[in-house]
C-alpha cells in the first residue's frame, strides 16, 4: 500500500499544470472576444443598408404597371398552352383507346381467319383423300383415261398419294408421252429439298 499512495499523488501533481494552461487559453479567448467583437459588429451593421426600398431606383409606377401587365400576359399565354396541351393529351388518350379496341378486334379477326384456314385446309385434304381413294378403286384402264386428260402435275399429285400398286396400274394405262411427263414430275417433286 505504501507504493500506491505516492503514485496517486504524482498523478495529481501532473494534472495541475495542464489545468492551469487550459484556464489561461480560455481566458485569452474570452478577452479577445470581449475586445474585438463590438467593433466587428459595428462594421457589419454599417455595411447593411438601414432601410430596404420597396421600389428599385428610378422605377416609376408606369414601369411597374408595364412589367405587371407583361407578366400577366405571359401567365395567360402559359395557361392557354397548358389548356391546349391538356386537350391534346385527352385526344391522344381517346385515340389510344380506339387503337387498342381496333387491335383487339384485329387480333380476334386474325384468330378467326387462322381457324377458318385450318378448317379449309383440313376440308381440302379430306377432299383430296376422298378423290384419291375414288381414283385408285377405279379400274386402271378407266382411271388412265381420266389421267390422260389431266395436267401432268395434277395427275402426279394424285399418283403420289396412291399406293404404289394402284399408281403403277394407272401409269401403265397412260400413253408413253403422258406417262413419261408424269414420271418426270413425280421424280422432280422433292428435288429442291435440301440434303444433309
TrEMBL record:
All copies of domain Magnesium transporter MgtE intracellular, residue ranges: 121-179
UniProt region (Disordered), positions on chain: 42-61
SUPFAM superfamilies for the chain: MgtE N-terminal domain-like
UniProt entry keywords in alphabetical sequence: Cell projection, Cilium, Flagellum
Keyword check for Transit peptide: no
InterPro entries for the chain: Mg_transptr_MgtE_intracell_dom, MgtE_N_sf
Stretches with biased composition (Basic and acidic residues): 45-54
One Pfam family from the record: MgtE_N
Signal peptide, first to last residue: none
Protein origin, superkingdom: Bacteria
Protein name: Flagellar motility protein MotE, a chaperone for MotC folding
Organism of derivation: Cribrihabitans marinus
Amino acid at each position: 500500500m505504501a507504493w500506491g499512495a505516492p503514485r496517486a499523488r504524482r498523478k495529481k501533481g501532473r494534472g495541475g499544470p495542464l489545468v492551469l494552461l487550459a484556464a489561461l487559453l480560455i481566458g485569452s479567448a474570452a478577452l479577445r472576444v470581449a475586445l474585438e467583437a463590438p467593433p466587428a459588429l459595428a462594421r457589419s451593421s454599417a455595411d447593411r443598408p438601414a432601410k430596404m426600398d420597396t421600389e428599385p431606383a428610378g422605377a416609376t409606377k408606369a414601369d411597374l404597371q408595364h412589367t405587371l401587365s407583361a407578366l400577366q400576359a405571359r401567365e395567360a399565354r402559359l395557361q392557354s398552352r397548358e389548356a391546349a396541351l391538356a386537350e391534346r393529351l385527352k385526344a391522344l388518350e381517346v385515340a389510344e383507346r380506339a387503337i387498342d379496341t381496333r387491335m383487339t378486334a384485329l387480333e380476334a379477326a386474325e384468330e378467326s381467319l387462322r381457324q377458318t384456314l385450318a378448317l379449309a385446309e383440313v376440308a381440302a385434304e379430306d377432299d383430296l383423300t376422298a378423290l384419291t381413294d375414288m381414283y385408285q378403286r377405279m379400274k386402271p384402264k378407266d382411271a388412265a383415261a381420266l389421267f390422260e386428260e389431266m395436267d401432268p402435275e395434277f395427275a402426279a399429285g394424285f399418283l403420289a398419294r396412291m399406293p404404289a400398286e394402284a399408281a403403277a396400274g394407272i401409269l401403265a394405262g397412260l400413253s408413253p408421252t403422258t406417262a413419261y411427263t408424269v414420271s418426270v414430275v413425280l421424280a422432280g417433286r422433292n428435288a429442291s429439298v435440301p440434303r444433309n
